[in-house]
Design goal:
Helix 9 links the parallel strand 6 and strand 7. This protein has two domains: about 160 residues, Aspartate Aminotransferase, domain 1, CATH 3.90.1150.10; about 230 residues, Aspartate Aminotransferase, domain 2 (3-Layer(aba) Sandwich). It contains 14 helices and 13 strands. By secondary structure, the chain is an alpha/beta fold.
Length: about 425
């Protein structure tokens, strides 16, 4: 019996969780990764695990393609095509078409480029629209960039406090709706199709941040009729710390603008070296400077680990396991950590939850997470009081969920988190 068939609320032992792992059709995918002994890794929503293939691939790029072939590798090893080849792979995970998505820069830089591009379309089509709409709990970088562009373009950034209020605020003054598909702090997932439709009905465009979606939950940008999207490579795509990001624009928009960081790689003819800029056709115009080949090679290894699931049910199967893992975690926390001051802040409804579970506690949140990390249970903390646990179905097992909750219970019941070493804030939380 697999996790697809079992009532998770009826699990009462670690042995039952182990049985689910033995029957897990996705279990072979776990062997793609370096698995540190004694670690239960529930932080794939911040940094994905290291694929076993990455080190050898980077060594090949360094030793052979760079070390021996040198500059010839731009042609011989396909370095120049890598942003597009990798983009086409990621496109398969987010419902984009071939040659519609490209890998470049960071998520923040791509957000700036995509937001600027979207606003240039709005200025042409509906210059009277002067509002950027988002939610107050959106990731701060997204809001900072939106605030900066709004200030520079004499627009107003409007933030709603409740996701349920977004559709009602869409009026004839709104130029663009900017949202992170899965909220970083709560794990709440927006209905992309419904909100995109509401935005279009109101005459606005949409820009979706897929940082907590790509590789974790099914996304279909084209079916949802989204306008623009960005996303990162170092979370569920397992590209490594600081991995390059990606950007997508719907074909109906992509040739209508110059993105603001016009660079030579985004030129229609970069090796003509002409003084005047002419944007390349299609998504290529979102490129700017020389691609970071080492980082992109690592990212390709990470993306391939997710694509390996295609023969085992693909994103729908990964989603099914993600929901089973997060359901089990939430259930066990409620059952085994009752009366310990924890509050579940992630939605219980499947349609509203990404691949993470967030808990809050009025006292000791940071220290509790540090105590868990000292035991090898790695999640992360988000101010002011959020304990975040990200569940990557490629690597996380059902016994990991059982054991993580047991460690959490022990840390709370024994008050181990009050030890002085857990109260000292580190630079990265």
């Amino acid at each position: 019996m697999t996790f697809l068939d079992v009532d998770l609320t009826q699990l009462t032992s670690r042995a039952q969780c182990h049985a689910l792992d033995l029957a897990d059709p996705l279990a072979p995918l776990r062997e793609q990764f370096v698995l540190p002994e004694g670690v239960i890794y529930l932080d794939g929503n911040s940094l994905g695990m290291l694929p076993k293939s990455t080190a050898s691939r980077i060594k090949e790029v360094v030793d052979k393609e760079w070390g021996q072939d040198l500059i010839r590798s731009w042609n011989n090893a396909g370095w120049m095509e890598l942003p597009h080849r990798l983009g086409n792979k990621i496109a398969r995970l987010v419902g984009a078409g071939a040659a519609e998505l490209v890998v470049a820069d960071s998520t923040s830089v791509n957000l700036f480029k995509a937001l600027s591009a979207a606003l240039s379309v709005v200025r042409h089509d509906a210059p009277g629209r002067r509002v950027l709409l988002s939610e107050r709990s959106n990731f701060p970088t997204d809001l900072y960039i939106a605030e900066s562009l709004a200030r520079d373009q004499d627009m107003t950034l409007v933030l709603v406090d409740k996701p349920e209020d977004l559709a009602g605020r869409l009026g004839d003054d709104v130029a663009l709706l900017l949202l992170t598909h899965v909220n970083y702090r709560t794990g709440r997932m927006h209905d992309m199709a419904a909100l995109t439709r509401a935005a279009h009905d109101a005459g606005a465009l949409t820009l979706w941040d897929l940082a907590h979606s790509a590789g974790a939950v099914p996304v279909d940008l084209k079916a949802c009729d989204a306008d623009f999207a960005v996303g990162c490579g170092y979370k569920y795509l397992n590209g490594g710390p600081g991995a390059p990001a990606f950007v997508w624009a719907h074909p109906r928009h992509v040739d209508r603008f110059w993105q603001p960081l016009a660079g030579w790689i985004g030129h229609a003819a970069p090796f003509d070296f002409t003084p005047n800029y002419q944007p390349a056709p299609g998504i290529t115009r979102f490129l700017c400077g020389t691609p970071p080949i080492l980082s992109m090679a690592a990212l390709e290894c990470g993306v391939d680990t997710v694509l390996a699931a295609e023969g085992l049910g693909g994103m729908p199967m990964l989603r099914a396991k993600s929901l089973a893992l997060t359901d089990l975690f939430a259930h066990l926390v409620a059952q085994r950590c009752a009366n310990q001051g924890l509050t579940l802040t992630s939605p219980t409804a499947h349609a509203l939850r990404g691949s993470q579970v967030c808990l809050t506690r009025e006292e000791g949140g940071y220290a509790i997470m540090q105590a868990l990390i000292s035991r090898g249970v790695i999640g992360d903390f988000r101010a002011p009081n959020v304990l975040r646990f990200g569940f990557t179905p490629l690597t996380v097992r059902f016994v990991d969920v059982w054991d993580a909750v047991e460690h959490l219970r022990e840390v709370l019941v024994t008050q181990a988190w009050k030890q002085p070493q857990f109260l000292q804030r580190a630079a990265v939380t």
